[in-house]
From TrEMBL:
The EC number(s) this enzyme carries: 3.6.5.4
Domain of life, per lineage: Bacteria
SMART domains attached to this UniProt entry: AAA (SM00382), SRP54 (SM00962), SRP54_N (SM00963)
Annotated organism of origin: Arundinibacter roseus
Family affiliation: Belongs to the GTP-binding SRP family. FtsY subfamily.
Record-given protein name: Signal recognition particle receptor FtsY
Length: 318
């Protein structure tokens, strides 16, 4: 069992339920668009384009999907509107498999990963960053991995307190220096402690917003350099947490953070309760960064490893 596949067997019902609003929104609109139509014509494709854009798939990605469907319709000469949902599902899955999301849910054997494995978590305040870290810590620990958390978002007292609370709740060690302290020093101490106690995973929380991109870049760069004094190859992963319910705002945040630092994985939270689930497709396609986790509910295990086939199935099945 790999270090990252320990919750990929989440019940499909949770995923279905979490994406229900997005699915209903897409298919409600699609049903109205094809009423009285027999074949997939230009008008149906125009309607589908509007539906995908309004579901926060994004203009660039929507155009790609429509072009693929157009090519299929032209090739097949006659395509019934009844086949549209199947074709849509197949083309979106194909698009996701071409982005670097492919292989994310593949098993990593623990011996192939550096130990301790260091994840630096970035993202603006309010996206569910600290909650995501808490849920990850719980899931790692549940599988028997020793976890250390570093409370390096020292600009907000609430962030430090919240991470400490998660540490108590989950039963993992949290290294903190309180508020208005040097985030790099917290990261340094968290790595030192992690190495000392033989931790498997160290997760470092970082500040959600520094006034300018230059400040953010400098701060994250400094945290990385200081961590490398303890572990030369740290961090092994830089995870950006995005709030899926904000739709195109999440895309804007991804653009800002990918300019400020190297991001190697994405977690898209709060997909339950929103009709903007399509944003996962757009983000995955535009940034070519693996979407590793999606949040589809409040429970500890509702942070799921992103599985593109299951995601597309839940989002587009009738």
């Amino acid at each position: 069992m790999g270090l990252f596949d320990f919750f990929s067997k989440e019940k499909k019902e949770t995923l279905d339920k979490g994406l229900e609003k997005s699915k209903e929104s897409i298919f409600g609109k699609l049903s109205r668009a094809i009423v009285g139509k027999a074949t997939v014509d230009e008008e149906v494709l125009d309607e589908l384009e509007e539906i995908l854009i309004s579901s926060d798939v994004g203009v660039g990605t929507t155009v790609k999907i429509i072009e693929r469907i157009e090519a299929r319709v032209a090739r097949d000469k006659y395509t019934s509107v009844n086949e549209l949902d199947r074709i849509l599902r197949e083309e979106v899955a194909a698009l996701l498999s071409e982005s670097s999301s492919v292989g994310v849910t593949d098993s990593f054997e623990t011996e192939h990963l550096p130990k301790p494995y260091v994840i630096m978590v970035v993202g603006v305040n309010g996206v569910g960053k600290t909650t995501t870290i808490g849920k990850l810590a719980h899931q790692f620990q549940h599988r028997g991995h020793k976890v250390v958390l570093g409370a390096a978002d020292t600009f907000r007292a609430a962030a430090v307190a919240q991470l400490k609370l998660w540490g108590q709740r989950v039963g993992v060690l949290v290294i903190d220096h309180g508020m208005n302290t040097d985030p790099s020093a917290v990261a340094y101490d968290a790595l030192k402690k992690g190495v000392e106690i033989g931790a498997d995973v160290i997760i470092i929380d970082t500040a959600g917003r520094l006034h300018t991109k230059v400040n953010l870049m400098n701060e994250l760069g400094k945290i990385k350099r200081v961590m490398q004094k303890v572990l030369p190859d740290a961090p092994h992963e830089v995870m950006l947490v995005l709030d899926g319910s904000t739709g195109q705002n999440a895309v804007i945040q991804a653009r800002e953070f990918t300019k400020a630092t190297e991001v190697t994985s994405l977690a898209v939270t709060k997909l339950d309760g929103t009709a903007k689930g399509g944003v996962v497709i757009g983000i995955s396609d535009e940034f070519q960064i693996p979407v590793k986790y999606i949040g589809v509910g409040e429970k500890m295990d509702d942070l799921q490893v992103f599985n593109r086939e299951e995601f597309v199935d839940s989002l587009f099945k009738k």
